[in-house]
Amino acid sequence: MAYLMGIDVATTACKALIVDEKGTVLAGVAHEYPLLTPYPGWAEQEPRDWLRAAALAVREALARAGLSGKNITAIGLTGQMHGSVFLDAKDEVIRPCILWCDQRTDEQCAWITNTVGRDLLTQETLNPVLTGFTAPKIMWLRQREPDNYSRLRKVLLPKDYLRFWLTGEYATEVSDASGTSLLNVPKRQWSKAVLQRLEIPESMLPACYESPEISGRVSKSAAAETGLAEGTPVAGGGGDQAAGAVGNGIVRTGLVSAVSGTSGVVFAQTDAPLLAPRLLLHSFCHAVPGKWHLMGVMLAAGGSFRWFRDTLGAQEVAVARESARDPYEVLCEEAAQAPPGCEGLIFLPYLIGERTPYPDPDARGVFFGLSLRHSKKHLVRAVLEGVAYGLKDSFDIMAEMGVPIQQVRASGGGARSSLWRQIQADVSGYAHSTINVDEGPAFGAALLAGVGAGVFASVPEACDACIRITSVTEPQPANVKLYRDFHAVYKALYQT
Questions:
Q1: DSSP characters over 74-87
Q2: What positions carry a catalytic annotation?
């Protein structure tokens, strides 16, 4: 029996997951770390916190599964995209990592677009330069912290810094590299044209692999820290969304995932690199070799619900604590008491800016239509509906492009709520299915490791062996019509 490990360097915690070759989850352990916000719009983390959490998670996962490091056939890596780990000539971290949700680089995005040229940039990367992406962070370091930039020798993405710690190799893979604004996405290799215009030496970047390819092996020092066996192969892995799509079985055209995690994502595989109208969707390399994907991204999906819980849900948190329940479950029960459409109350979930369809770091959240009629149950439901409206924006753009949407698979924390799944199905107009595993990107990373190690012949074969549909939530026609009218109001509010 082959045992596979996926390690996910997420925004809030590092997770180690162990599965067997049938996709059975044997153990999953996560250790959290802090998010640093030293100034408004900034978001950073200390990379050493990831390593500490990863070592603990791996050791505990092995113990819970009753396995030793020698039992692990291969490891796959995934994690938050776009973050910049800056290393000096001694491989020391120069400054805290600037994360995907950091908004400080608006000026650098404009500078890159002007310096490279919009047409060349679009031809090479298929995407606009956005504040969360990696290239503007490099430029920010050059322009705002020149002393730190003078020390810079290597730039790694978060999961790839973990790879360096595990294997000693500077490496990444195409799905994560697609979000740097430095990859030629159609050709799946670093863009020499963009690098030349920005005067970034290619030697500053890691080698770029396909996602299932073996990119290194666990070193002696990492084996001592983690309990893994020296020499264990480590696959390229994937950015969190591409790996999460593999873990959700989105490995054929026509399958689409709707993820309501901290961020919200609508993800569709494509057989060729596509340019989205007005560049409103990300067009990246998929973790499936020779395939690409379109992705619409909301910055605060589950993050909006978490904000509500932390800011206005103290009563529900207390009730949940007393009854040993999840606070989100209590909040959803309250939301279920409000009617669809919340009697005219609409929430805009732009709490930290937005990407799709509004690439605007200054967009902000709104409760619109409040009246004396509304109570907390309406507020909670409005948050759930607002996130669903935001996801529908991405579905509508894909439909406009003619992307086939034959089956939608729901995942992320929001998919665990039957109410929120129903709202998403009603708002989008598409049935939402769930599958037998909901372990997110770490599960997909483990499957990619299995392909790299030869346990599976291909990524689709791995998904076919491990994934099956467990439920389907059909849209309710009356609610579909109601939400269609409210979504039109929702879309008008940002413009207003």
A1: EEEEEE-SS-BEEE
A2: 240
